[in-house]
TrEMBL record:
It comes from the Eukaryota. This is Uncharacterized protein. Residues 277-288, 315-330 have a biased composition (Basic and acidic residues). Residues 301-314 have a biased composition (Acidic residues). Residues 277-330 are annotated as: Disordered.
């Protein structure tokens, strides 16, 4: 994890946006009310404010990525289905610094909002991955909803790899649509002269110069990725508790870095499955032999068929009957 953090810092990726969360101070973040949503903003070189995009490297735990199928499209339209990923740092120093930065954002938002309570997001209480330690979870909805019609400036075309069947597009309305805040970029590093662009070999010197799209369906648990996120506070209202704000990490992009760990796990699972199949086959053979031993002993005994001449058979039967009667008289 630390190696990839340092490698990415050394690369000059011309189309990369965002700053490493491990190297950014929460004191440099400005909180702004964007009309019901508070956002963490950072300053541009000219002094203006822009939504802060923060990056962290980790190993994927759970993920829910596109494509969206027809059965799940309705869940997405109700914001029950999210584009979501959880990553763990396995104790790396850079990941823990990013984790601390994210935790500090709670206090930052609480100070900015003041009038209503803050519901802490998952990172503050620290969901713990049994193997990877502390983890961070970022997610994004598929639809932005508004009381007023959404403008064409806000709306975006749904990418084919997100909605290949048109299931989401059919559910869009003037007040619920795929907009700028719903866009998540699924990426990988590529470029001329980079062996890594075609092979998963972390020992190769990286000379990549740009990020390119990656099919979201290709991402797997235990891959090492760079996750980029924004930090927003969403207003909620409860009749019992009143108004409150929930602070969450909003997924902005996922950059594939290394699949070595995932490949090893897949190979191990295949070997385990193969052993289970072989053991099951042996058990089945053993059971079949046991069933044969305990089966009907007459099942495999062959007897001569009855002859065409029934007289001999009848005489034989009568002879046997006489023998039995004689024995009884004695």
């Amino acid at each position: 994890m630390s190696d990839w953090h340092n490698k990415l810092a050394a690369l000059n990726l011309k189309n990369s946006i965002g700053v490493a969360a491990a190297e950014f101070s929460a004191t440099d973040v400005v909180i702004r009310d964007m009309g019901g949503i508070f956002k963490a903003m950072t300053r541009k070189k000219d002094g203006g404010l822009v939504e802060g995009i923060f990056a962290v490297v980790g190993c994927v735990g759970d993920l829910t990525f596109p494509p969206v199928t027809f059965p799940r499209a309705k869940e997405a339209s109700k914001n029950l289905l999210l584009q979501q990923a959880s990553i763990s740092g396995y104790g790396s120093q850079e990941f823990m610094k990013a984790y601390d930065f994210v935790a500090e954002m709670d206090d930052k938002f609480a100070t900015a909002i003041l009038t209503t309570p803050i519901t802490q997001f998952a990172a503050s209480s620290g969901p713990i991955d049994e193997e990877g330690g502390m983890s961070l979870t970022a997610s994004s909805r598929y639809f932005t909803k508004s009381k007023d019609p959404l403008s064409q400036h806000e709306r975006r075309a749904i990418p084919p790899d997100v909605d290949p069947y048109g299931a989401l597009g059919r559910l869009e309305t003037t007040r619920a649509a795929y907009c700028t805040d719903n866009v998540v970029k699924y990426l990988k590093i590529a470029g001329s002269g980079s062996k890594y662009a075609t092979q998963q070999d972390t020992r190769t010197t990286l000379t990549c110069i740009r990020l390119v799209s990656r099919d979201p369906s290709l991402f797997r648990p235990r891959e090492i990725v760079q996750l980029k996120f924004a930090v927003h506070a969403f207003r909620k209202f409860s009749p019992e508790a009143g108004p409150s704000f929930t602070v969450k990490l909003v997924l902005r992009s996922v950059v594939f870095l290394d699949g070595t760990i995932a490949d090893r796990i897949v190979a191990l699972e295949r070997r385990t499955l193969k052993r289970k199949c072989e053991d099951a086959k042996k058990d089945k053979t053993r059971d079949q032999k046991r069933q044969r031993r305990g089966g009907n002993p007459l099942a495999d005994v062959d007897y001569d068929a009855e002859t065409d001449s029934g007289a001999e058979t009848d005489d034989t039967v009568r002879g046997v009957e006489r023998m039995q009667l004689d024995g009884e008289r004695r």
